[in-house]
Model the fold of this input.
Amino acid sequence: MAARPTNTAADFKKRMSLIEKQAVMDAGAGLSEASASDFIALLKPRVMSLVIFTGFVGMMAAPGHINPVIAAIAILCIAVGAGASGALNMWYDADIDAVMKRTAKRPIPAGRVSREEALGFGLVLSAFSVVTLGLFVNLLAAFLLAFTIFFYAVIYTIWLKRSTPQNIVIGGAAGAFPPMIGWAAVTNSVSIESIVLFMIIFLWTPPHFWALSLFMSDDYEKARIPMMPNVMGAASTKFQIFLYTVLVAPVGVLPWVMGFAGPAYGVFSIVMGALFLLYAFKVWRAEVGEPMISPAKKLFAFSIFYLFSLYAVLLGEVLVGKAMAAFGGAI
Amino acid sequence: MSEDRVTLTEKQKRARRSRSLALALALAAFVVIVYVGTWAKLGAALFNRPM
Done:
């Protein structure tokens, strides 16, 4: 029986050299049986929906006016750009996707789409989304979108994911850019407010993904991805989850403190931040092994609700504010 | 020469049709985006410029 890998820092260094690209079975050069839905799956539609939502909130929260048609084009470009980076991620990660239960049915490891097709698809969509955003919205938003795609595909997927347990800490930036792009689409600037919207998602990413990795660590181990629990151990991961939650909870309140969100958001973000801390605390205090699985799953589910609801309340408040301003102006 | 032609299976034909339709829709959508976006960006003064 093969010895089970241990989780010390020394093992991690040794394992880093083992994480290399492996050959993967894909559709190859034969006649394709890929349908349009396989190409849509390459775009990671679920991730895309969160990107659309946060990008839209960033756009709505920004001061100023944007033509609704241009706003729709901006959202479409952000969505397609995010989808393109998903396709590039699946192109590069096909070998590790094939060994992980969660990802084994993706179009490339399942043999329906070839890696070359995914690469071409991702590159073409990246180019179209960035150029269209630049031509119809503004160059800053286009630059930020191009940087986001580059960051996710090259910095995260190709470089960090296989080489450091800090992969999702730094890589989380890619998922945090959409509200900043939405903000830039309206204002043609990067302001402190849009940086706060960025920071909320950036600091939220580690507790979210590490909670997932606590109960999926076998999958990551099998794929030899250096996720925090496999490298530093579950105890260290639980503590770091709590630390990042301590950071994200007050940052989540900043939009109200800085005045670009109202009191409803302020109260809601304080309550949600306290709950987030409570869930993270329970994970931290749970014993390593079976007892930590249930709190980790609860934290993972709550983290999704936390981010979605915070942005939803911010959006609701902004829309009510705009409606009242329009109504007041009409009187 | 004609004996060397590849015959597609039903599944491959369906897949090709699905891809062709999606590509056609995507191209049509892009044309509409460029048309509507140009109007929205440049407005009624679209053709009102010195030659």
Remarks:
- The first helix of chain A runs from residue 9 to 16.
- Chain A touches chain B at residues 31-37, 39, 67, 69-70, 73, 76, 128, 132, 135-136 (CB under 8 Å).
